[in-house]
Design a protein that fits this description.
alpha/beta, 2-enoyl-CoA Hydratase, Chain A, domain 1, OB fold (Dihydrolipoamide Acetyltransferase, E2P), five-stranded mixed barrel, elongated
C-alpha cells in the first residue's frame, strides 16, 4: 500500500518549525562575594542573552554576601531584564547569604538545591564591631525597605524578607519553599528546566511563557578578566598591593637606578588604587598607613630611642584596621588580622633593617679610592719641608704639609688628596 506524500507534509513543517525555534538557556556561575566585578559579569551576561533571544538565564549562585552598591546594581538588572532570570542556589552546601538573599528574591524564579540555605541579610560593620546606633539604624531601615520592595515586586514573603534583614534570619531550602521565599527545589539544572517549563513570568516588555523542556544549555563562567578584577576587589589583596607599591617606590628612591623595584612599585600602586576605587575605603585609614611609613623613615634619620618606631607601628596598625569603611556592606568584608599583623611586622623590619642599612651605607665614609685615604695614618719616609714622601698602606706617596716641617719617621695623618699628592699633618696625639 502506497502512502500519499501529503500525509507527511504537516509533520515535516512542524519538525522544521521546531528546529528553527529551538530554545537556548544560558547558565552563568557566581561563586564568590558580590563585588563590582560580579555585578558587571551579570550585567553583560544578561545583555548578551537578551540580544541572542535566549529563553532565560540561570544564575547559579553561591555567595556569602558582598557590597550593597554592587547588590543594588545586580537587583536593578534583574528587575529590568528583557530576558527571564532564574536564580538557582547551588550546589548542595551552597549559600545565598546577605547580598545573595536580595539577588535571589529579585529573580523571576527563585530555586534552591537540596542542602542549601538563604538569609542573614542584616547590614554589619566591616570590622565586626558595633556601629554607631543611629548609623546602624539608618542602614538597617534602608536595607529593609530595599528588600521589601523586591519581595513585593516578585510576590514573595515580605515579612520573612524584612526579618532576614532586621533579625538576620537564615533558613534551609525546605523552609524557604514552605514560607514562599522561593518557588521550587531542584536537585540539578535539567530537573530545574523541566520544572519551570510552561511558567508565566513578567519581564521588561511584557509577559513570557517559559519553554525550557529540551532547551539547549550553554554554560558561561567568569572569564579571566572578571576573575582578575574579582581578585583585585579583595580588600586583603588591595592592602598588600598598596604596601608593596610603597616598598618598591621607596626602595627605588633610596637606590636610584635599580629600576625593577620602581616598576613593580608603580604597577602595585596603580592596581591598589583601582581596588580601593571599587571598595569602600576610609581615607583616614589610608592616611594613617602613609603616616606610619613616614615615621619609620624618620626613625632611620633621627635618633628617637624607638619612639618613632612605636608610633609607626601603632599608626600602621590603626590605619590597616580602619582602611575599609564600615558602611555600604551586607557582609563582613574586612582585612584579615592574619594579613595585617605580618604586614605591619614586615613593614617595620623592612624600613628599620633594609632601608636603614641602605641609608647608612650611603652616609658611611668611603673606604676605597682617593676619598678612602683621607684620615688614614702613615709615616714620613723623607723629611717634608714642605714636600717629601710618606708611606701609606705600604705604598710611597708624594706629600706636602701646610704646617711645620716634618722629620723622617714621623707619624702623619692624611687630611686631603690632590691628584697623586697628599696633604698631611701630625696626628693630634703626637702634635705636642
Amino acid at each position: 500500500m502506497t502512502r500519499h506524500p501529503a500525509i507527511f507534509l504537516p509533520a515535516l513543517v512542524l519538525a522544521f518549525h521546531l528546529s528553527l525555534t529551538a530554545q537556548t538557556v544560558q547558565v552563568i556561575t557566581v561563586d564568590a562575594a558580590i563585588f563590582p566585578a560580579s555585578a558587571q559579569f551579570i550585567h553583560e551576561s544578561l545583555q548578551r542573552a537578551a540580544d541572542r533571544g535566549d529563553e532565560c538565564v540561570i544564575i547559579r549562585l553561591n555567595t556569602p554576601g558582598g557590597l550593597l552598591k554592587s547588590t543594588r546594581n545586580i537587583v536593578t538588572d534583574l528587575l529590568t531584564s528583557r530576558v527571564p532570570v532564574v536564580v538557582y542556589v547551588s550546589p548542595s552546601g551552597a549559600q545565598s547569604a546577605s547580598a545573595g538573599s536580595f539577588i535571589t528574591l529579585a529573580a523571576n524564579i527563585a530555586a534552591m538545591a537540596p542542602g542549601t540555605n538563604i538569609g542573614a541579610a542584616h547590614p554589619v560593620n566591616l570590622q565586626g564591631g558595633e556601629k554607631d546606633s543611629i548609623m546602624n539604624e539608618k542602614a538597617t531601615n534602608d536595607a529593609a525597605a530595599f528588600i521589601r520592595t523586591i519581595s513585593e515586586k516578585r510576590h514573595r514573603n515580605v515579612q520573612w524578607a524584612e526579618d532576614a534583614v532586621r533579625k538576620s534570619i537564615s533558613i534551609t531550602e525546605t523552609e524557604a519553599l514552605r514560607d514562599s521565599v522561593i518557588d521550587l527545589i531542584a536537585p540539578s539544572i535539567p530537573e530545574l528546566l523541566h520544572a519551570i517549563d510552561g511558567r508565566h513570568v513578567t519581564v521588561e516588555g511584557g509577559e513570557r511563557i517559559l519553554r525550557t523542556a529540551g532547551a539547549t544549555v550553554t554554560e558561561e563562567g567568569m572569564g579571566w578578566k572578571f576573575r582578575l578584577l574579582d581578585i583585585l576587589n579583595d580588600p586583603n589583596i588591595a592592602y598588600v598591593l598598596f604596601l608593596l607599591g610603597l616598598y618598591g617606590l621607596l626602595f627605588e628612591i633610596y637606590n636610584p637606578g635599580a629600576i625593577f623595584p620602581g616598576i613593580v612599585g608603580v604597577i602595585a600602586i596603580v592596581l591598589a588604587l583601582y581596588s580601593m576605587n571599587t571598595l569602600p575605603v576610609n581615607f583616614a585609614g589610608l592616611a594613617l598607613i602613609v603616616f606610619g611609613v613616614v615615621l619609620f623613615l624618620l626613625e632611620i634619620k633621627i635618633t628617637s630611642h624607638g619612639l618613632l618606631t612605636v608610633g609607626g607601628i601603632v599608626s600602621l596598625l590603626l590605619g590597616s584596621v580602619m582602611l575599609i569603611n564600615p558602611e555600604s556592606s551586607l557582609e563582613v568584608i574586612a582585612i584579615s588580622w592574619g594579613v595585617i599583623i605580618p604586614a605591619v611586622l614586615c613593614t617595620a623590619l623592612f624600613f628599620l633593617l633594609a632601608v636603614g642599612l641602605g641609608i647608612r651605607a650611603q652616609s658611611r665614609k668611603p673606604v676605597t679610592g682617593v676619598e678612602g685615604i683621607v684620615g688614614e695614618p702613615g709615616e714620613t719616609v723623607t723629611p717634608i719641608s714642605p714636600a717629601g714622601q710618606v708611606r701609606l698602606h705600604g705604598e710611597l706617596w708624594n706629600a706636602v704639609t701646610t704646617g711645620d716641617p716634618l722629620p723622617a719617621g714621623c707619624p702623619i695623618t692624611v687630611v686631603a688628596v690632590n691628584g697623586l699628592t697628599l696633604t698631611v699633618r701630625v696626628p693630634e696625639k703626637h702634635s705636642n
